[in-house]
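Q: What residues go here?
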């Protein structure tokens, strides 16, 4: 047995600001250098990806992705310094929550899994 946890951030109205899906989006943009390529890799429309990124940026009040239009070699998308920091911070939070949940699970369920007293 193991515990499963999900981590996401909501605003004061309960609207999702950031979570695993958006983490995957930013990672794909970072690796592929394009929102269009990221959307295709994630099997979603460009419009859906762009809307989620935009809503996150609006709720944070900060730009996470910068785009260079044009279609040539100089075009594409990349994470802003704020986007890189936010992604890194979210991963640290997520790792911390998972580690803590694993420790608590082991502490609480240890006896039940190993039949020890």
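A:
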């Amino acid at each position: 047995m193991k515990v499963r946890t999900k981590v996401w951030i909501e605003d004061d109205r309960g609207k999702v600001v950031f979570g695993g899906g958006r983490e995957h989006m930013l990672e794909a943009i970072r690796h592929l250098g394009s929102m269009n390529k990221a959307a295709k890799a994630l099997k979603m429309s460009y419009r859906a990806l762009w809307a989620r990124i935009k809503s996150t940026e609006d709720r944070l009040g900060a730009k996470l992705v910068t785009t260079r239009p044009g279609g040539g070699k100089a075009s594409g998308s990349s994470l802003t310094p704020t986007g890189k920091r936010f992604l890194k911070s979210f991963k640290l939070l997520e790792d911390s929550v998972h580690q803590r949940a694993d420790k608590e699970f082991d502490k609480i369920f240890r006896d039940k899994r190993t039949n020890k007293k």
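A: Context that may help when evaluating the design: Residues 9-89 form a domain with the Arc Repressor Mutant, subunit A fold (CATH 1.10.10.10). The radius of gyration is 18 Å.
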